[in-house]
Amino acid sequence: xxxxxxxxxxxxxxxxxxxxxxxxxxxxxxxxxxxxxxxxxxxxxxxxxxxxxxxxxxxxxxxxxxxxxxxxxxxxxxxxxxxxxxxxxxxxxxxxxxxxxxxxxxxxxxxxxxxxxxxxxxxxxxxxxxxxxxxxxxxxxxxxxxxxxxxxxxxxxxxxxxxxxxxxxxxxxxxxxxxxxxxxxxxxxxxxxxxxxxxxxxxxxxxxxxxxxxxxxxxxxxxxxxxxxxxxxxxxxxxxxxxxxxxxxxxxxxxxxxxxxxxxxxxxxxxxxxxxxxxxxxxxxxxxxxxxxxxxxxxxxxxxxxxxxxxxxxxxxxxxxxxxxxxxxxxxxxxxxxxxxxxxxxxxxxxxxxxxxxxxxxxxxxxxxxxxxxxxxxxxxxxxxxxxxxxxxxxxxxxxxxxxxxxxxxxxxxxxxx
Length: 418
Fold this sequence. Notes:
Elements: E1 2-5, E2 15-20, E3 27-28, E4 33-38, E5 43-47, E6 52-57, E7 64-65, E8 70-75, H1 76-85, E9 98-105, H2 109-120, E10 125-129, H3 136-141, H4 143-161, H5 176-200, E11 204-207, E12 209-214, E13 217-222, E14 225-236, E15 240-242, E16 254-255, H6 257-261, E17 269-273, H7 277-288, E18 292-297, H8 308-317, E19 322-327, E20 331-337, E21 340-345, E22 351-353, E23 355-358, E24 362-364, H9 385-389, H10 393-397, E25 400-402
Parallel strand pairs: 9-10, 9-14, 10-11, 14-25, 16-23, 17-18, 17-23, 18-19
Antiparallel strand pairs: 1-8, 2-4, 2-7, 3-6, 4-5, 6-8, 12-13, 13-14, 15-24, 20-21, 21-22
Helix pairs in contact: 4-5, 4-7
């Protein structure tokens, strides 16, 4: 019997246990993860220093631990006897086109950072991304293009404000095609830089959708066909997608943040469903370009994750952009008509809009990454995008790790504090 303690974890003290990965009676292998810790700066898993059988747990979810805190009691001798009693059989091998030390699933900020770091440490690394460019949602259709357009909007607003100083300019002449080109050039420069950094570090990039098919085996559906990849460790950084409202009709005038960034047209009026940062960012851009805004939010304030004093200042400065700010109000129905989108609310009269931006949060990708070869609670249909991505998938697929976006916490909008 031996007591397993929290090892040296650097300067971290009183770190919260967010997940216990074993239970009494479990037979565990050397280096198998026991618990997951999360501080305000990092998430880390504590491995077992030896193989054995877990006799008792000393921690639970929510506990605070530091170096030297007991984690569990491990009976290492019984594990040796049990292992010796098992009939020996050669491990099953599956043919694979590519072998690597680390595979990273998803090339967003979490994924490419992990891949580059692994390569810097001398590990043979493969980065799997379903889209043709690296950078994920943030760089391609999120933070970066929205900030490029917000910069343009800020310059236009600043020029208009100079009229109060006695310096007046005429109204800007808008060329949406050139504005889209400017945004795309900003994105292209950064994605090109990431591709060059991956090549410099000799990170192999596979374009396609990945799914785990067996222990330490990933299948990637590429344009050339399915490729199988055998890995020692995998990092899941599959990101998220915009959440949808099921009652909204399919219509090109109803868009999410990705559709809004395309700037296909400039509507006279627009409804933003959801009073979070993402929707209000895009609303600001469209407002500066001449669109009148309504915002509907089911809770009692805008940008509830932000400091309320700062939100009050922002609302006062931007009040002129909005015709209606409907708080504590739910959107109940929408209908696409020839002259616009007619929307009904539970606490306001129905209204017609030229465009509707749906910005009600984000949902995790990854519900299909553990479809093949899963056992027990991981079988197809068990749901739980975050958990399928790690907790039960580990049971079937080997050493899996996750980036911050797979933690099972609510997905934050762009600009919110991590």
